[in-house]
Every structure is written in structure tokens, then in C-alpha cells.
């Protein structure tokens, strides 16, 4: 089974790329979705109570409050990652085991920090979805909970694109339409397979 990493900076179109890949009947593990689930299903609340109790609301984690706390205390992000990343990693292992049992020929691990974490080294290949910085900023600012400060904080935590490109076998520049993105993804997976 081939394991392909999918990554990209904020608002480059990685989530759209993952939707297209799913349309190709390729299983996709979405690390961000797992984090959101952890924050909603009580697991995150249980684990983050001691580190940031102000962000815990009953059985869920208030992501907006969590972002505010991280903006005020950047060291908090590392503490949270040390708690949450092992849970996400176990979910990924379960996904891979299930995919092997189902005899999947190829799967995709969708993770925004795939390269920053060094996890790209575990992949058979990495696909980077990229976009012009102006397009990234414009797309990100359309999100309902986005502010310039939050966007700048997120960008500052991500590896520069030119570095990510060095670690990616396939690079898809997403500066056009969704149809163009889909065409590039289809071509990339034809080449991989």
C-alpha cells in the first residue's frame, strides 16, 4: 500500500485537494478533522483541563478561546501539541491498519504540519499544495473567524514554502480554478499509480 502525504500552508487549497482525492475513491486521513473531533468528543477537554482550563467548556474545547490563549501565550501551543499529537498519531495508525485490512492500493495522509513534524519521511511521496501569498491571505481572510493577527501567527508557525518545496515530490500550484486544481490532482495520481 502506498502512503502519500498531502500538505500545504493555510488557505492554499489543501482541503479542496483532499475532497478531490476522495472523489477518486482514495481513502484520506484528515489530521485537522481528527483534532476537531478530539476537541468535541470529550477527549480533548479531559486532556487539556490541566494546561488551559479556560478553553474547556464542559466536554468540549472552545477553539476560539484556545486560539486567543495561544496568541497571548505562544508557549502554550507546544504544550497542547505534546498532548494532542500522540492521540492524532494513534488515529492515523488505526486508519492505516484499517486501510491495509481493506486492501487499499493507496491512501493519503492530509496534515498541515507534515513536513514541519518530519512525518513526510514516513511517506512514499509528499504532495504540496501551494498558492501565491496574496491568494493565501485573501482566501484566509474570507474565513469567518480569521483576523490579520491570527493569520500572521499561523503563517509564522508554518515552514516557508520554498523549504516545503524541497521536501515534496509533487507540487501543485493552486492559483487557478477548482477545475484546474482537479486536473492537476488527477494527473498527479495517474503518475503515482
Task: Describe the protein in words.
Helix content is 53%, strand content 15%. It is an alpha/beta fold and 193 residues long. It folds into two domains: 116 residues, 3-Layer(aba) Sandwich (Rossmann fold); 73 residues. A five-stranded parallel sheet has the order 2-5-1-6-7, sandwiched between helices. Strands 3-4 form a two-stranded antiparallel ribbon. The mean pLDDT is 92.
Do you know the CATH architecture of the largest domain? 3-Layer(aba) Sandwich
Shape: globular
* Strand numbers in spatial order across the main sheet: 2-5-1-6-7
SS element count, helices: 9
**Helical content band:** 40-55%
Number of strands: 7
Strand content: 15-25%
Distance between the termini: 11 Å
The whole-number mean of residue pLDDT values reads: 92
CATH class of the largest domain: Alpha Beta
Our Rg estimate from Cα atoms comes to 17 Å
- Can you summarize the main beta sheet? 5 strands, parallel
What's the name of the CATH homologous superfamily of the largest domain?
P-loop containing nucleotide triphosphate hydrolases
CATH T-level topology of the largest domain: Rossmann fold
Order of helices and strands: EHEHHEEHHEEHHHEH
Unreliable stretches: none
Whole-number count of domains: 2
Which structural class should the secondary elements be placed in?
A: alpha/beta
Please supply descriptive tags for the structure shown above.
193 residues; alpha/beta; Rossmann fold; five-stranded parallel β-sheet; two-stranded antiparallel sheet; 9 helices; globular
Amino acid at each position: 500500500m502506498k502512503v502519500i502525504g498531502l500538505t500545504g500552508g493555510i488557505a492554499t487549497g489543501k482541503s479542496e485537494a483532499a475532497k478531490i482525492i476522495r472523489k477518486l475513491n482514495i481513502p484520506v486521513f484528515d489530521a485537522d478533522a481528527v483534532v476537531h473531533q478530539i476537541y468535541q468528543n470529550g477527549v480533548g477537554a479531559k486532556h487539556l483541563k490541566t494546561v488551559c482550563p479556560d478553553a474547556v467548556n464542559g466536554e468540549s474545547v472552545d477553539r476560539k478561546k484556545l486560539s486567543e490563549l495561544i496568541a497571548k501565550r505562544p508557549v502554550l501551543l507546544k504544550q497542547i501539541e505534546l498532548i494532542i499529537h500522540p492521540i492524532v498519531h494513534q488515529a492515523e495508525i488505526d486508519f492505516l491498519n484499517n486501510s491495509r485490512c481493506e486492501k487499499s492500493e493507496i491512501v493519503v495522509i492530509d496534515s498541515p504540519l507534515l513536513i514541519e513534524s518530519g512525518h513526510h519521511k514516513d511517506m512514499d511521496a509528499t504532495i504540496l499544495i501551494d498558492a501565491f501569498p496574496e491568494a493565501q491571505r485573501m482566501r484566509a481572510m474570507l474565513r469567518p473567524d480569521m483576523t490579520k493577527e491570527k493569520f500572521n501567527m499561523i503563517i509564522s508557525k508554518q515552514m516557508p514554502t520554498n523549504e516545503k518545496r524541497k521536501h515534496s515530490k509533487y507540487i501543485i500550484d493552486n492559483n487557478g480554478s477548482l477545475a484546474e486544481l482537479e486536473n492537476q490532482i488527477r494527473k498527479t495520481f495517474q503518475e503515482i499509480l
